[in-house]
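hiii, so i know i said id send this last week but things got crazy w the move. better late than never?? heres the sequnce for the chain we talked about at the cafe, plus the structure i predicted for it. fair warning i was half asleep when i ran it
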Amino acid sequence: MKLSWMPEKADRILSAKTWKRWAKYAVAALALAVWGSGQVACSSSPEANGAAKQQAEQQFEQSEGRQLAQNGSGNQAYKKKRYKNKKNKNKSYSPTSSSSGDGQGLIELGRLAPPQKGTLRLASWNVHDLFDTVDDPNHDVVLSRRDYSAKLAGLSKVLNRMQADVVGVQEVENQACLKDLAAMSNYPYYLLIEGNDTMRGIDVGVLSKIPIKNYVTHARDKCQAGGGGRSYYFSRDCLEVHFNHPSRLVMLVNHFKSKRGDTDDSTVSQRMAQASRVRGIAAGLQKYPLIIVGDLNDEPNSQALAPLTRTSGLHDVLSWMGPNRVSFKTKRFSSALDYLILNDALKAKMLDKSARIVVGDAVAEASDHRPVIVDVRI
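okay and structure toks below
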């Protein structure tokens, strides 16, 4: 029996939800027509209703099959996605779980749990070209007021969600920029000392929720690799920061010489000299719980960073991540350039597998580097 109110080829134009509704109407109309013709008595029993429902579902499944055949794999992918979402709807994620990011040690910003009570979260982040609106003598980027506000908003969104107690930052133009970022990110303490970068004018600094007790700039230290050779200064600074905390925590913030334009390893010796000098500074601070952070601009297995990554008493705590260790990511390049290196005193206080790389859309929009974090119980 053809129903005059049923559109032709409805199985092609109706959504699954609407087609179910049409099927129910069709069954009801069919029952009503049969009852009117006196062939059978209309029954409201569960058995009769169940049979009608089963018939309608079979008709729907046949129609759904035709629709999938007509539309190809697109609807199938949609059904699989819908099933997957339903399956994982109530699934909980652990902050250190490999499923809560792109892989082992990667953690989605939105799934990052706050630091546990009695712990400190320490972090490092190259915030990528935090320049102001003033044209300085250096080859700096001059942002419009709108772009400057947007840059601060993007960075503070990540920092507020990350909830680190201390963050070593790189690529900040000056203390005024860091002050604005601190205000938007709820950090009452901040420090930036102008360093050696006269080309771009970028510096290293610290954002902190812990009072800063004192600091030492190593911008004028002579850096020389073991065995002699040419000496260098730090490309920006190695900023030594002591915190007014019962643990007497110390952080060394670095941003080593970049590989930019390096096609013949001409900058390797410079990074190696800088790494050697940082190791020397760390050796004089053994009595403190110490963390070395920053964008060191080379891979963990590089010879240039061997003085820090392959030496006794210092621990590259992101090394457990293996191939998932990607802290610098663009459309063309991805590599591990950002570090958290702990001395023995602080490594003993580290929470297991708490050293992670923070990922997510907000992170990618704010910088080409991903923040790296570690939680310690001190």
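btw The mean pLDDT is 81. thought thatd interest u
miss u guys!!
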